[in-house]
Amino acid sequence: MKKILLALCLSVLVCVPLAGRAQETTLVALDVSVPSDLPPEIPPPVVGSVIKVLTFNTWEIISAKMRNERAAAIGKRIAELDPDIIAIQEMFEARHRDIFLKSLADHGYRPTANQYFLRLYGSGILFLSKFPVLSVTFEPYRVNCPWYDIERIGGKGIAHLLLDTPHGRLDFFITHALSRTPAIFDEQGRFIPGDPKQTDRLLQMYQIDRFVRAHRSPRGRSVIAAGDFNVSPEMLEYQFLIALTGFESSFEILNPGQNPSTFDAKNNMWVPDDFSRIDHILFKNYQGTDGFWLNPVLSRVEMDGKFVGPDGKEYNYSDHYGIYTEFEVVTDPALAPPSPEGRARGTNACAACGPAAAAGSEITLTPENYPAWRDYALGVMGEAYWRKDRTNPLVVPMAELLTAPPSAGGRVKLDDRAQRELKKRGCPKDCGAEAKAADRPGDESWTRRLQSFSPWN
Prior knowledge:
By secondary structure, the chain is of the alpha+beta class. It folds into two domains: 2-21 and 33-340, Endonuclease/exonuclease/phosphatase (Deoxyribonuclease I, Chain A), CATH 3.60.10; 353-439, no CATH class. Helices cover 25% and strands 24% of the residues. It contains eleven helices and 21 strands. It has helices at 2-9, 67-81, 94-102, 198-215, 236-245, 250-254, 353-358, 370-387, 395-403, 416-425, 433-439, and strands at residues 13-15, 50-60, 85-91, 112-113, 126-129, 133-140, 157-165, 168-176, 222-228, 248-249, 263-264, 275-276, 279-285, 293-302, 306-308, 314-316, 322-330, 362-365, 410-413, 448-450, 454-455. Helix 4 (198-215) packs parallel to helix 5 (236-245), helix 5 packs across helix 9 and helix 8 crosses helix 9 (395-403).
């Protein structure tokens, strides 16, 4: 019973080398232990000019099969890959986490823990690094499906970790966003647009952009964002995230024209339907003065093989596959030019009040009116985000507007509900909503900044 109660309370778990003297967490006092046979001393990592990153959803949820066996096999396979940074999702319960960590005990990952209580089942996020972590911030998703949806039990959100690498500091973000139902593709492989949770996910992508802008090092040169985003390149949510942030996909840069699945019903025994690439390692280079730039030199689907179970049969590691990327560390800006800026923020969210009032069933974008419509759309998104308005009929068309090219010929269609809402309000109820979304400090009732670590041993 004690283990069950512990599992229900688990949330964000960070496993990193200590950056300095450990302090007890002020959030909770929880009896967490590691296997007694872990080696007391862990050799320092061998560091080169390449940073290796893996993201993997382990499918260690209550209803999953072979959780103990898979946790051990996953750890052994990851140990063979030997990444410097590991972003894990759906690692909820202590017993499976301990089995997993035992497989990595002598590979340079010194376990340290923080618990962040949120809802019943925690976030399932597990982070391991060979680099010390200077600070951690976790933020639950503000809009996260209706109260009766089972996914609401999980405390999904996004975390920021400031890593102290031998090459300089690195901002790393890890997330697990809301899943999509129904399937993304039909049996013929045709994309199915939209689903009941699309607005929720769009606002989560908006929150990712806001969170990254608020927490990344202002003079830093690079950012990595990894995890199960639950959005494929075909989805509006993915395109919206890329347009807002200016993130680049390490996989797409190195594998143009390829689109393998990381959630694959065709080849994975644990997946009943659907096939899509919803797990990503994204990055961005900035014109900063601190740290280093990133140049992806290798990126592939990983954890797509099988392991041999106790019965001699072969099993997939999870219902997901992972993404593995190697980044070259660059200090010459000519070798790693800055990434796209993302959608610029305007100063007047009400600049498009006139065009909005006159809009009919379609918005036609031109180079002249695009800045006003951009500010208007960002204002709508900011207001919906702060009000937790998951039923706002303008969220989807405004996301489409923000992903449209800022040139003549871009068109955004409006359904009847969106037209009525647009005409009724003319412009956002709070014209400064976008500025507030960018500048307003987090609400401490749902945001926690974790600056200290409690060692497990």
